[in-house]
């Protein structure tokens, strides 16, 4: 066992986990099972974890800082141990686990903007953002009890939906808005459902036929394959020539140099573009029509993860929306793999045009 896999607090027992390798894949190993570091912390047995776009961007890419780390941040499970001060959940509760955990003492954490915490990633990776393992620990306020009719697999999608909800809150989307979404992966589809639930009309763009089919099943008004149709022409027809009130860029990653300029062409004068899809680290050069953006007063709004909106944790809000049937999940869950097959699961998730993958679940 290496220093990288040893937790500061340990039970002396071991658990199975998927560890990042030097080449960016995973290996299954026995590592120390985490102990509760404080009286208000909870331990859960992870039942289902998800593979998201951030995970895929690190797939097969050597990343020394992640070597031997336990990854994954979308999960649901069952409470198996609680600290003496825990009142929020009890042993045996089925729970959604939120992995967005800030340091708790910086200026942003103090006003519950913990998604902006300067130490967000080191903090969350040290404890609760370790979904690809049998057990995970975190402070009690990050555990949400599941209604009986919400499954572990449904709940594992809710990190994604909370990202979408945060983006919608930032967008200022209102009823009867004309919305364009670039990317019909889990985030784009979640964004579409939220926009429809809020009374908007939705056009969604993707090159994967199966994803567009699912988008239509979930209520999208118009679907566009940019390899077959001109997205700008389609959006103009959809909006009576004005352009979209709100554009959500939900593809991210290596596609951003193409999708972000497209988003600026789809937005109307005075419209808003929300950057939901993630960038890779370092500097990214993307040429944009800055004069047109400025003269049209088009707003570019970055959106990062999620936190609290008004008095409501956004993770709790999407759980409530799923529980009440306002957001759907099962249409997005296309594949399930055991933890031992995590490398196969990542291959399937990446090759979505061939496999028709949307949300790939790991049953742990």
TrEMBL record:
Highest taxon in the source lineage: Bacteria
Pfam families listed in its UniProt record: ADH_N, ADH_zinc_N
UniProt-listed PROSITE patterns: ADH_ZINC
Required co-factors: Zn(2+)
Keyword Oxidoreductase appears in the UniProt entry: yes
SMART domains reported for this sequence: PKS_ER
Keywords: Metal-binding, Oxidoreductase, Zinc
InterPro entries documented for this protein: ADH-like_C (IPR013149), ADH-like_N (IPR013154), ADH_Zn_CS (IPR002328), ER (IPR020843), GroES-like_sf (IPR011032), NAD(P)-bd_dom_sf (IPR036291), Zn_alcohol_dh (IPR050129)
Gene source species: Sphingomonas carotinifaciens
Protein name: (R,R)-butanediol dehydrogenase / meso-butanediol dehydrogenase / diacetyl reductase/L-iditol 2-dehydrogenase
Residue ranges annotated for the Enoyl reductase (ER) domain, each copy included: 24-350
């Amino acid at each position: 066992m290496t220093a990288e896999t040893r937790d500061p607090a340990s039970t002396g027992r071991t658990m199975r986990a998927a560890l990042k390798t030097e080449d960016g894949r995973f290996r299954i190993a026995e590592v120390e099972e985490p102990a509760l570091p404080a009286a208000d912390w909870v331990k859960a047995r992870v039942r289902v974890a998800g593979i998201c776009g951030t995970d895929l961007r690190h797939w097969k890419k050597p990343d020394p800082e992640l070597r031997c780390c336990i990854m994954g941040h979308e999960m649901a499970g069952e409470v198996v141990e609680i600290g003496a001060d825990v009142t929020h959940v009890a042993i045996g509760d089925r729970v959604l686990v939120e992995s967005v955990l800030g340091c708790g003492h910086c200026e942003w954490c103090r006003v519950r903007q913990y998604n902006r915490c300067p130490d967000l990633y080191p903090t969350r990776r040290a404890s609760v953002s370790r979904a690809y393992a049998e057990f995970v620990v975190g402070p009690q306020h990050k555990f949400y009890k599941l209604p009986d009719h919400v499954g572990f697999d449904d709940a594992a999608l809710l990190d994604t939906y909370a990202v979408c909800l945060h983006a919608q809150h930032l967008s200022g989307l209102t009823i009867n808005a004309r919305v364009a979404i670039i990317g019909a992966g889990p985030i784009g589809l979640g964004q579409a459902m939220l926009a429809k639930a809020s009374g908007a009309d939705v056009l969604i763009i993707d090159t994967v036929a199966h994803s567009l089919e699912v988008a239509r099943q979930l209520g999208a008004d118009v679907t566009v394959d940019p390899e077959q149709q001109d997205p700008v022409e389609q959006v103009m027809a959809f909006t009576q020539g004005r352009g979209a009130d709100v554009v959500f860029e939900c593809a991210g990653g290596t596609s951003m140099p193409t999708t972000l300029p497209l988003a600026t062409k789809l937005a109307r004068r005075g419209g808003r573009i929300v950057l939901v899809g993630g960038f890779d680290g370092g500097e990214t050069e993307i040429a944009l029509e800055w004069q047109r953006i400025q003269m049209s007063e088009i707003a570019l709004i970055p959106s990062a993860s999620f936190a609290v909106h008004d008095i409501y944790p956004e993770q709790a809000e999407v759980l409530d929306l799923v529980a009440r049937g306002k957001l759907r999940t099962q249409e997005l869950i296309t594949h399930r793999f055991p933890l031992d097959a995590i490398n196969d699961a990542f291959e399937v998730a990446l090759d979505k045009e061939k496999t028709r993958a949307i949300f790939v679940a790991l049953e742990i």
